[in-house]
Amino acid sequence: MMKMMLCFSAVLWLLVAAAWGSPIGLLVHEEPCLAVRNSSLQLNQLARTAAREARNGSNNIDDFTSDLAWIETKDLCDPETLKHNPETCLEKLLHVSSSYRSAVKRVSEFEKCSKFASKLQPAMLKLQRDMRRCVGARARGGAHLPQQPSDWLEAVERWQEASLCRFTLDRLFSFSVLTARVFAVGDPSLHAAAAAHHGCM
């Protein structure tokens, strides 16, 4: 009897999935990637506020030689590539998020940056956790999850701390914009479908 009930439940689940028009494989990783959409938007809002507050009206362009990772064209984060092969971009985003997490942790220790940067750490941790689940779910356990990069240990004079704070938070905000765009539809492989849908509006 129990076996029949389990079989019935499985068949019912398949019928519901078919009625929704969603491939079974998509449902496996759709929810973890939707979580990244929410956490990336949250980080984007916090990063924008932190960068603006750290600048305090200043238009100075701060530049440092750093080990911060960044997204490049070769990382294939464009919508068309995301549709067919999102893993390369997602793994790089995960690596870059780890790099920024280390950098933000460091500038949070600066007296003039602590009140801005410290607010970002919980959101960055949540984004990284959600992103790891999304990458792992998409690859069905076979994803190459990058290791946490070593902390950014370049020596900084005390008088440079405010500039480094602004530099780090500005770059984090730019990264958060890209991340929010990649996960705007939840599963990045749905970008093309979303674009087609909006084109019919």
UniProtKB/TrEMBL annotation:
Q: Which UniProt keywords apply?
A: Signal
Record's InterPro entries?
4_helix_cytokine-like_core (IPR009079)
Q: Which residues form the signal peptide?
A: 1-21
Concerning Gene3D superfamilies, the annotation shows: 1.20.1250.10
Instruction: Respond yes or no to whether keyword Signal is given for this record.
Output: yes
Mind telling me what this protein is named?
Uncharacterized protein
- Source species of the chain: Champsocephalus gunnari
